[in-house]
TrEMBL record:
Superkingdom of origin: Eukaryota
Record's compositionally biased regions (Polar residues): 121-139
Entry keywords, A to Z: Cytoplasm, Methyltransferase, S-adenosyl-L-methionine, Transferase, tRNA processing
Family note: Belongs to the methyltransferase superfamily. METL family.
Annotated organism of origin: Sparus aurata
Organism lineage string: Eukaryota, Metazoa, Chordata, Craniata, Vertebrata
Residue span(s) of domain Methyltransferase type: 169-271
Recorded GO CC terms: cytoplasm
Annotated GO biological process: methylation; tRNA processing
Annotated region (Disordered), positions in chain: 1-34, 121-142
Gene: METTL2B
Subcellular localization(s) per the UniProt record: Cytoplasm
Enzyme class (EC, first level): transferase
Protein name, as recorded: tRNA N(3)-cytidine methyltransferase
């Protein structure tokens, strides 16, 4: 398919910008799971807001690689160290300026990540039966895991979420555009959501939001790259960890250790969910000279930074941390502004990786 010419209409290195469609009858935003709308006739490109799994021509991919190479001269070491040292300051400034006006709630969350939706049981829905284990062995294993969590609750009665039966942690929560949809949609009485951000300004915006409920949620300041810093939960107690457009903000040298630290927090069978920028995304191609920090790692005009991943890079990080692949997909999307007749090529990567369930003890005979 000959790709339509892309005219970029957003700021270089801009944060996540998706264009959900509305149901004309109800006005509610509806976003089907990606991979279900295909552009077969380029003349129809402006019929919808977005097209899935857009095939790139060889010429388009070669042009993208050339563009990246042209702007790949890294900044001097002292400038890179300045952006690293002042990262917290830049993100605080960002949220001070934009508050909660920049990001929109992520309406696609429960379509792509049903693990966040009500009544989701990781033990029943997402875990394959352990090979060689019968139903009674599996039930016994799950009971043992619940007892372990209950024992933790007994010793940490005052800890937020200590009595929860389903625990979610979002890292890099921003102003709550993932957390609040989860709290509003998932009415599971056993749910507790932990959320953290590098920016104290962002966390304060979450805590002052009228929808923030300390009985179901704990927001706290945390530096993901500081692997020695403690989390308010014990290792092996989380069902789900969410990383949405956050790992890309870390220095590449700190990513692996950060993922390894998070993996320790998952209980057996728990999952880590990620959605982030893919290589040659429109945002990467928009960077001008003087913005490259290292290979595929850039600084925006406001001082915040962003990395653009490949599937293999992320797979290596997760598996090195001891997690098993459930999903690792590239979402190549053509977004369309029908009013301005603009097309924008986006490349995102979506991953799900799981900590292996505990193997039941083998019985004789």
């Amino acid at each position: 398919m000959a790709a339509p010419h892309a005219v970029v209409g957003v700021e270089a290195g801009s944060r996540e910008t998706e264009l959900p469609e509305s149901d004309p009858a109800t006005g509610e935003v509806k976003r089907p799971q990606f991979g279900t709308r295909f552009l077969t006739d380029p003349r129809q490109v402006f019929q919808h807001n977005a097209w899935d799994n857009v095939e790139w021509t060889e010429e388009q991919e070669a042009s993208a690689k050339k563009k990246v190479l042209e702007n790949s001269q890294p900044l001097p070491t002292e400038k890179q160290e300045e952006y690293e040292g002042r990262a917290n300051e830049y993100w605080n400034d960002f949220y001070t300026i934009h508050e909660n006006r920049f990001f929109k709630d992520r309406h696609w969350l429960f379509t792509e990540f049903p693990e966040l939706a009500p009544q989701c049981s990781l033990n029943n829905d997402s875990h394959p039966q352990v090979s060689g284990a019968d139903d009674s062995q599996q039930d016994s294993l799950e009971r043992e895991q619940r007892i372990d969590v209950a024992a933790l609750s007994l010793t940490d009665d005052d800890a937020p979420g200590s009595s929860a039966t389903y625990r979610i942690l979002e890292v890099g929560c921003g102003v709550g555009n993932t957390v609040f949809p989860i709290l509003k949609t998932n009415n599971d009485p056993g749910l507790f959501v932990y959320c953290c951000d590098f920016s104290s300004t962002a966390v304060e915006l979450v805590k002052t939001n009228p929808e923030y409920d300390p009985g179901r949620c704990l927001a706290f300041v945390h530096d993901l790259s500081d692997v020695e810093a403690n989390y308010p939960v014990h290792d092996g107690t989380l069902d789900v960890i969410v990383l949405i457009f956050v790992l890309s903000a870390l220095h590449p040298d700190k990513m692996q250790a950060s993922i390894r630290r998070l993996a320790r927090l998952l209980k057996p069978g728990g999952v880590m969910l990620l959605r982030d920028y893919g290589r040659y995304d429109m945002a990467q191609l928009r960077f001008k000279k003087g913005r490259c920090l290292s290979e595929n790692f850039y600084v925006r005009g406001d001082g915040t930074r962003v990395y653009f991943f490949t599937q293999d890079e992320l797979h290596e990080m997760f598996t090195e941390a001891g997690l098993e692949k459930v999903q690792n997909l590239v979402d190549r999307r053509l977004q369309v502004n029908r009013g301005k007749q603009l097309t924008m090529y986006r490349v995102w990567i979506q991953c799900k990786y799981r900590k292996a369930p505990v193997q039941p003890a083998k019985t004789e005979g």
